[in-house]
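WP5 quarterly update. Target: UDP-glucose/GDP-mannose dehydrogenase N-terminal domain-containing protein. Source organism: Daphnia sinensis. Length: 105 aa.
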Amino acid sequence: MPIYEPGLEEIVVRNYKSGRIKFTTDLGDSIQGSEVAFIAVGTPPGEDGSADLKFVLAVAEEIGNKMTGFLVVATKSTVPVTTGEKVRAAIQSALDRRGSDLKLR
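Structure tokens (predicted):
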């Protein structure tokens, strides 16, 4: 495990073995049949020192391109407060471009 939290490794291993959690780099595959998607990518500082959200928003757009039904999308905690609104807009924009009738709440 790349991070330490007491008991986390045992929880992850148990849930992985039971099929309740999986890890992949294939976003399209990962959200099919999932109820929750976590966006946990790097947010390096931009030239002005603010968080560079290009990776977060790229994943949000890809989620909008691939999702086919209900999905909770969560972002990691090291993004600025207004990032949720930007993620929502990126997902909805991708859904609209592909003509999907899915709407975000």
